[in-house]
Amino acid sequence: MLDVAVIDDPAAAEVSLDPIRARLLAELAEPASATMLAAKVGLPRQKVNYHLKTLEQHGLVELVEERRKGNVTERVMRATASSYVISPVALAPVAPDPSRAPDRLSARWLLAVASRLVRDVGELITGATRAQKRVATFAIDGEVRFASAADRAAFAEELSGAVTALVAKYHDETAEGGRPHRIVIAIHPRVTAEPVQTRTTGSDGTEES
């Protein structure tokens, strides 16, 4: 079982978004049969079997073993991953394109960049899994609390300068056998469950409630 699987097929994405099937995927983090799942989700075994077959057809669950019980063969299934991410590839005709309107201060552009990140890494994972190799990746995940909008802007400016300097230092356009890598660094307010007070930015760059 994979830790995370990326869904790039539109039909598989549609199947995974069904509430009942999503619940079955969650339950199948541990192997189970249709009979066992029926008792957990409160559905008839035949109905669970129908959903399992659909999930299996789209590669979201897999057969672990078959058990013979009298005249019945019980199929024990397991989800192919602990969690799933739907790639923008599944919505290719309307997927966001970061090159359409690049703007470092735009939240929508940040979302487009993040979507591209999911798409690209998803394709890398798929290819690496088939080749039975690992993907060389690196990420930084942290949190910073800014005292003001001005501090946030200054931080972004310094970060931009630092990254630009590092790129200039290590980028080698003529390196034989070199491989291009994409760099994505994002800063956004932390999402919390609690409602937050709406703020606007005044003409002097400070935040106003």
From TrEMBL:
Lineage of the organism: Bacteria, Bacillati, Actinomycetota, Actinomycetes, Streptosporangiales
Gene3D superfamilies (UniProt xref): Winged helix-like DNA-binding domain superfamily/Winged helix DNA-binding domain
InterPro entries assigned: ArsR-like_HTH, WH-like_DNA-bd_sf, WH_DNA-bd_sf
Protein name, as recorded: Transcriptional regulator
